[in-house]
Amino acid sequence: MSNRRSFLKKTLASTTLLLPGSIITSCAEPGQKNSGEKFKPLILSTWDHGMPANDKAWEVLMETGNLVSAVEEGVKVTELDMDNLSVGLQGLPDREGIPTLDASIMKGDGSCGSVAFVRQVRHPISLARKVMEETPHVMLAGEGARQFAIEQGFPMEKEELSPKAKELYEEWKVESRYKPIVNIENHDTIGMIALGPDGKLAGSCTTSGLAYKMHGRVGDSPIIGAGLYVDDEVGAATATGLGESIIRICGSFLIVELMRQGRTPQEACEEAVIRLIAKNSKDIKDIQAGFLAINKEGEYGAYAVQQGFTYAMHHSGGGNLLNATYKL
Ligand code: SD4
């Protein structure tokens, strides 16, 4: 376990105690299924950092009733978290030493927006929302996305690595292994899905992607249907982990379609992981990927390829941090 993740685990209880509205009420053991309980409203987010993100999203939802603002503001907390090296400009850079970001946002009525391979933007999730609301397009990438950010009045940040990212990048450069590190410690994207009190759904997903990726590489997070999919008629799903493996199976769309055909969120996440393993079998030992899903009734599910995927859930009873069940 990396120092950072073990640090996170050790400090988790104390961190969450400081956050109003957050209580850990349960922590499922690996292998334990959720019991089919239902919650409305309900917010789920990937990984430990989903706890403070969910708190913020919940607060915004309670104050404004706006589910899209809730999922945007929630993940903005993670985009600013200097301890998170997989989200935001402080994240680990590509192999050229440049942080490039991917993000997407979606509403259950089919509206969606995303940005890929964008530089110098502190809140790519807000830029994705602008793409959704202010353009006729779904996705802007690279320099075009950056120019759009400037037009929309987003400040351009200096291209400087955060101190932690710089230190780790310097260490990586010694060997500069071309292959991205794909073990379970290299994933911390935040994906958030939410069910509002009126039964409408929304989701968001934001990441700096794989550490030391090739310049120009785009993962699953900004690809609607891969890293995120939301449909008010059925439910929502989001993904984290090795983006290439998730894109190959259109993971989030697959889960929503399986739920449409009658699977529970848990069953749908499990089937997606089985498909992902089948399509990525050669390297599966080195791959971690995890999915979260909610259906419109307020049932939820989570499943991962390997042990170690945590997710945060927030409902009217407060916040929980849970261990996802896993296949391998
Ligand atoms: C990607 N899915 O770019 C992202 C990485 C990730 O937790 O999830 N990290 O492939």
Automatic annotation (TrEMBL):
Q: Which organism is it from?
A: Fontibacter flavus
- What PANTHER family is this protein classified in? L-ASPARAGINASE (PTHR10188), N(4)-(BETA-N-ACETYLGLUCOSAMINYL)-L-ASPARAGINASE (PTHR10188:SF6)
Write the protein's name.
Isoaspartyl peptidase/L-asparaginase family protein
Q: Which UniProt keywords apply?
A: Signal
Q: Which residues form the signal peptide?
A: 1-28
Stored Pfam families: Asparaginase_2
